[in-house]
């Protein structure tokens, strides 16, 4: 199928279950599809579905060098449970060394621009490399995670013209945890300590009940600034569409 033919299925897929979306697109895209997992609760659900359905979809994650120990423990536990490797991509060490020499080890607290530069070096560039062999990738975005995600569709084009597949857009947080509990999935133990959305350790904190799921991320910035910018063109940040914030 051509890319356009796949994208034209949006209305059809919008009413399908996450399992049906994954199965159908895996069949249509074959080796062109990859799953980008940040080990979040939603990603654990997708990982389980891929495994349960027996889909031959490779999985990768990004190690920024600033993750929580609990996240590394979860990578380990997930690989063991499913007997499936998660390919780990790291930032280029020269770029990290240069950034730290210029801006310090905690540059992200100094300004939004420096924070975005850190995300670029530690996440965007490795993401660009990880996605290079593929024409489509799967993400765990949900519409109710953030204002910037309210318009997310099942199928989108990222800044590089790749198809981005969001099988859980209609799921609520409750749906995610019901699934995790039903199938006894491994999950990040920080969730039990009030962490809802988990990224890098210095940029993530626990939230109190009632706070928005994303309020623990880059909490010192305004909502408009909270663009990780996880869509890239030729390794550079592209900000065409705020809805594409991915992590
Ligand atoms: Fe850097 Fe924070 Fe972005 Fe991680 S989340 S890459 S530590 S700015």
How would you describe what is shown here?
With 247 residues, the chain is α/β, with parallel strands linked by helices. The protein has one domain (3-240): HUPs (Rossmann fold, 3-Layer(aba) Sandwich), CATH 3.40.50.620. The protein has eight helices and eight strands, in the order αααβαβαβααβββαββ. The strands form two sheets. Strands 3-2-1-4-6-5 form a six-stranded mixed sheet. The two termini are 29 Å apart. 40% of the residues are buried. The chain binds iron/sulfur cluster. Iron/sulfur cluster is lined by residues 64, 66, 108, 115, 118-119, 122-123, 199-200, 202-203.
List key phrases describing it.
247 residues; alpha/beta; Rossmann fold; six-stranded mixed sheet; 8 strands; 36% helix; binds iron/sulfur cluster
Short description:
By secondary structure, the chain is of the alpha/beta class. The protein has one domain (3-240): Rossmann fold (3-Layer(aba) Sandwich). The protein has helices at residues 3-7, 10-14, 18-29, 41-52, 69-82, 93-103, 112-131, 173-182, and strands spanning 33-36, 59-62, 86-89, 136-138, 155-157, 163-165, 232-233, 236-237.
**Helical content (DSSP H or I, runs of 4+):** 25-40%
Output the structural class: alpha/beta
What is the 3D form?
globular
State the low-pLDDT regions, or none.
231-246
Question: CA-to-CA gap between the ends?
Answer: 29 Å
For the residues shown, what is the average pLDDT? 89
Order of helices and strands: HHHEHEHEHHEEEHEE
Give the quaternary arrangement of the chains. single chain
CATH-defined fold name: Rossmann fold
Radius of gyration from CA coordinates: 17 Å
């Amino acid at each position: 199928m051509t890319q356009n033919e796949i994208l034209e299925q949006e209305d059809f897929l919008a009413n399908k279950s996450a399992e049906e979306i994954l199965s159908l697109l895996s069949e249509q895209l074959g080796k062109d599809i990859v799953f980008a997992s940040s080990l979040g609760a939603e990603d654990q659900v997708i990982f389980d579905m891929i495994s349960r359905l027996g889909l031959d979809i490779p999985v990768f994650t990004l190690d920024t060098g600033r993750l929580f120990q609990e996240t590394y423990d979860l990578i380990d536990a997930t690989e063991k449970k499913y007997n499936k490797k998660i390919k780990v991509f790291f930032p280029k060490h020269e770029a990290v060394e240069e950034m730290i020499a210029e801006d310090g080890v905690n540059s992200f607290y100094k300004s939004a621009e420096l924070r975005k530069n850190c995300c670029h070096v530690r996440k965007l560039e490795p993401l660009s490399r990880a996605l290079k062999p593929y024409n489509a990738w799967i993400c765990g975005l949900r519409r109710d995670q953030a204002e910037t995600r309210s318009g997310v569709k099942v199928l989108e084009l990222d800044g590089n013209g790749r198809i981005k597949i969001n099988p859980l857009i209609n799921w609520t947080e409750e749906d995610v945890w019901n699934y995790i509990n039903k199938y006894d999935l491994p999950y990040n133990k920080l969730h039990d300590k009030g962490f809802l959305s988990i990224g890098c350790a210095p940029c993530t904190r626990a939230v109190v009940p009632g706070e928005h799921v994303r309020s623990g991320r880059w909490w010192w910035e305004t909502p408009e600034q909270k663009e990780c910018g996880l869509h890239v063109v030729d390794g550079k940040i592209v900000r065409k569409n705020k809805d594409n914030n991915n992590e």
